[in-house]
Amino acid sequence: MATNPPKVRIEIAANERLQNLKKAFEKKHGESPLFYACAPGRVNLIGEHIDYCGYSVLPMAIEQNILAAVSVNNSGTITLANTNPQYNDYSVPCSGEIAIDRENPKWHYYFLCGVKGIQEKFELASLAGMSCVVDGTVPPSSGLSSSSALVCCAGLVTMEANQKSLSKVALAEICAKCERYIGTEGGGMDQSISFLAEEGTAKLIEFQPLRATDVKLPNGAVFVISNCCVEMNKAASSHFNIRVVECRIATKMLAQARSLDSSKLLKLAQVQTELQASLEEMLTLVDEVLHTEPYSWDEICKVLDITPDQFSTELLSANTQHVTHFKLHQRAKHVYSEAARVLRFKSVCDSEPAESIKLLGDLMNQSHASCRDLYECSCPELDELVDICLKSGAVGSRLTGAGWGGCAVSMVPCEKVESFLQAVRTAYYLPDPRKAAMEKQSLFVTKPGGGATIFLEE
Ligand code: ADP
Ligand code: NG1
């Protein structure tokens, strides 16, 4: 049965963060909020850069979230403010086209992505006027999905303010689609877990149709997040979309080599489905069909029998037009092998063999090596941090999220957590005053949190 996000009555005075947000809202707007909405960030345990290729991923929600206080009015305006002074106030009219400037991905455009998603879903000529104050605790641009938490929170806020009702699945799909207005062509993992998460369990997220299945994590270990303190804003750079595009081109090349109708195929998973092949067979196919040297425009156009114009408009995104060479073999190898690791991770969690923790740790380590060497989405600081985590007692450690900076997630046996935290602190954070200052919010144990929620004052 389709379920909607929970609406919970809460005593604001008993929750320090909500109380502070309420005060900030009253100071700003001279009235009390009508409701609050929150959407969590996430940590992906395994399955990196494969959601947009159609493959399942295995994230869990984290405690850190984006929280908004909202009032609804007849002002004809949506007014946005943020408790963090780094994010400036912004307002837009309730009717007319909501413009999102992807050349300049400021915070309010992420919020407006969520607003626009709901406006389009219900074809609303005019939205309800509202005032919002946003308060976020997800470290930004660090692979824990602060951007999607913001988009999901905005989608939920807009739904509620306009007295509409949507299931968690519908909201996840709308928010995955509308976040692409900011320019990054993500696959939907972040928005799905933000809505579908449940406290105490990680989730296997499958796409088409979107589905979330509980994954029980082993009792003997905990997951620790550590931030390498290098920020990477996905919308402001082309790293992310270059990988999306490389996977799209690899899809076409593999389809072409096996005489499939490549015009209909855009994702690597679709080639596997069409061929009815196993992931092992797809890995062999990649070795047979694709060479390891980067492909030029010229070569791709010849093989696919398309013009450079078609290549530019049909396969590349706006921010990847400058790319001259594409590593297709390496990217496809990563995707098919990572998709297999997700399935193995889930099956180890389900069957709980005696050596579960070692097996899961090995899969996480293989995933990191593949992200680093084949997908090239790590960075020196993140590799150093992953090495330190392994030397400090983790059985598995890997980058999480898009990469090129941001966080690692490590699996640490329960009895080693304290010594692990101390060793990582000493080796990675304390030697550098900038990192030392960020340590408290950068190194923490996490457990599966709940999904997006609306709060009403009791
Ligand atoms: P992530 O990996 O965390 O999703 P992105 O680089 O995709 O990172 O997006 C980060 C952007 O999201 C920030 O630059 C900012 O515009 C927005 N953002 C994140 N947290 C907040 C917040 N608390 N308030 C406002 N905007 C935020
Ligand atoms: P983050 O780390 O939130 O930027 C991005 C994509 C995901 C997924 C991961 C890599 C967006 C909104 N999110 O996550 O869909 O592809 O990278 O696994 O684009």
Q: Explain this structure to me?
A:
With 458 residues, the protein is of the alpha+beta class. The protein has a domain of 221 residues: 2-Layer Sandwich (Ribosomal Protein S5, domain 2). It contains 15 helices and 15 strands. It has a seven-stranded mixed sheet, sandwiched between helices. The protein has a four-stranded antiparallel sheet with strand order 12-13-9-14. It has a two-stranded antiparallel sheet with strand order 7-8. Helix 8 runs antiparallel to helix 11. It is globular. The two termini are 28 Å apart. The model has no long low-confidence stretch (mean pLDDT 97). The structure holds adenosine-5'-diphosphate and 2-acetamido-2-deoxy-1-O-phosphono-alpha-D-galactopyranose. The site of adenosine-5'-diphosphate (ADP) has 23 residues, from helix 2, strand 6 and helix 3.
CATH names the topology of one domain as Ribosomal Protein S5, domain 2
Number of strands: 15
Shape: globular
Fraction in beta strands: 15-25%
SSE blueprint:
Blueprint: E1 7-10, H1 16-29, E2 35-46, E3 58-73, E4 77-82, E5 90-93, H2 107-121, E6 129-136, H3 146-161, H4 168-179, H5 189-196, E7 202-206, E8 211-215, E9 221-227, H6 239-257, H7 268-275, H8 279-289, E10 295-296, H9 297-304, H10 308-315, E11 325-326, H11 328-351, H12 356-373, H13 380-391, E12 396-399, E13 407-413, H14 417-429, H15 433-442, E14 443-446, E15 453-457
Parallel strand pairs: 1-15, 4-6
Antiparallel strand pairs: 2-3, 2-15, 3-6, 4-5, 7-8, 9-13, 9-14, 10-11, 12-13
The chain binds adenosine-5'-diphosphate and 2-acetamido-2-deoxy-1-O-phosphono-alpha-D-galactopyranose.
